């Protein structure tokens, strides 16, 4: 259980921070930037939820919880030492990826295939979901870059890849099942 009774600690005043395993690193370290961008994704999901209801809101709530799991996973390097930790280390799982895939398939089943790219917009919820999509794509790029230098849980990479797809399909659902999508017209303003 997490207990947060003092919010500031002054330990980061010199420009470093602690990872989940206690190692201190620069606040601009790629791992910190990656899980910080996952946190940013969670924040924009919170904004999207202001416009969501029913199943969409429930699914976004699960995604927010998953994003906290993902941040916990990324802030704890050295996966090989998980067994030595003495307590379970939280890692993303393929089950979380599978759930996103099932939800994408269910939502996509209600949509007509696209014949053009979609511009971000339409309803307020769709616009926010597009912002979620782009921020999660940035988080994915950072995590993939981190994985070229350090060990990263592959389920975390897969989750972020599916998540941006989830946001795209959900944005179409939020636009009256795609009927209110704003379509790109190539060269329209020449």
CATH superfamily of one domain: Cobalamin adenosyltransferase-like
Fraction in beta strands: 5-15%
CATH class placement of one domain: Mainly Alpha
* H/E series: EEHHHEHHE
Strand arrangement in the largest pleated sheet: 1-2
Report the helical percentage: 40-55%
Given the structure, what is the number of helices?
5
Task: Outline the biggest β-sheet.
Answer: 2 strands, antiparallel
CATH topology (fold) name of one domain? Hypothetical Protein Ta1238, Chain: A
What is Rg?
19 Å
Overall shape: elongated
Taking all residues together, what is the mean pLDDT? 91
What is the straight-line distance between the termini?
59 Å
Number of strands: 4
Q: Which regions have little confidence, pLDDT < 50, spanning 5+ residues?
A: none
Instruction: Indicate the structural class.
Output: mainly alpha
CATH architecture heading of one domain? Up-down Bundle
Model description:
The protein is mainly alpha-helical and about 190 residues long. It has a domain at about 20-75 and about 115-180: Cobalamin adenosyltransferase-like (Hypothetical Protein Ta1238, Chain: A, Up-down Bundle), CATH 1.20.1200.10. The chain has 5 helices and 4 strands, in the order E-E-H-H-H-E-H-H-E. It has helices at about 30-50, 55-75, 95-110, 125-145, 155-175; strands spanning about 15-20, 25, 120, 180-185. It has a two-stranded antiparallel sheet with strand order 1-2. It has a two-stranded antiparallel sheet with strand order 3-4. Strand 1 and strand 2 (about 25) form a beta hairpin. It is elongated. The termini are far apart. The model has no long low-confidence stretch (mean pLDDT about 90).
